[in-house]
Amino acid sequence: MASHLNELCLQKIFQYIIIDSDEDYVQQLFYCALVNRYWCINAVPLLWRNPFRRYTDQSQIISTLVKCFEYDKNHDQRPAFRYDLFIKEISLQDLVIAVDDLEMNEVFDRFKSYLLKLIDTTENSFFELSCYFENFDEKINYDKLKLNLFQLTNAKESLGKLKSLHISCTKDIEILESALKICPYLSRLEISASYEFESEYADMCRLLDYLDSFKNLRHLKINCGLVIAYEHGNEFLTRLGEKLPRGLETLRIEGDMDFSPASLEKFLHGAKQIQFKSLSFHESECIIDAHLEVILKVVKDSNLHVGIRELEISYITINQAQKLQEQDINIIVD
To answer: Model pTM greater than 0.70?
Structure first.
């Protein structure tokens, strides 16, 4: 019976397994791959879509990829699959965690030389790279591994198509600086601060200084962390408004950031001429009527030309909601 299912049916089954099982789908897909060769051919690409995040035997994953890259048809046995062609997402954090405690320096050094080749083989048009390092995670030795792909030889040719980048704050300023030089088409950026370091505010400000240089940036998500949210909310919001690129469409600020109506007004003045498809102050409990009055005032000011199609906030009265909807602003209460 299993052999009579066509490829479309199998893909629907596998996608159901992935959605329904969440983190446990790897084991279930592995069992599916053992049914027969036909099932194996259809399951393996899904198993290798993001292998560094899902598998525990990371040394075997890296060794297998190295063999794929170093395969010589005249001397080597042909691999069962070109596993490198199936990878669609690379998380440097997962990769670093995978090799940090392994005694495989020679293999990993060889693997690093193939990272850009691996990126070149990806065929999806929306390529995503995660350069996310929590600076309080002792398992990650970032300084030792120096995994800044943007500084590798021929990085521009391989990463010029990059459209999405996720970075953390203190460890990855160098990464954003390098990306600015070679990634003109970056359209989505996610910046995450940690939750306990005073230095995070200064580091985040340095990152903000680069924002308006990314002319094609359309989507920005910032998790500001506790220190910024509680101690620097007003200054941070004002500075952010000044640095946003004019073509930005969605902005999502996560964290319970405390900021005054006056700071919100400065932010929106700094963001003049930006037409937000979505503006989100996710989890900010400080929002009161005065903040909403500021938003109404700004969107009505034809000189500022600030547009907000959708607003996500944690608080709103029925009266204020009606006023905002009169300005064609869709309200989402988180």
So the answer is: no
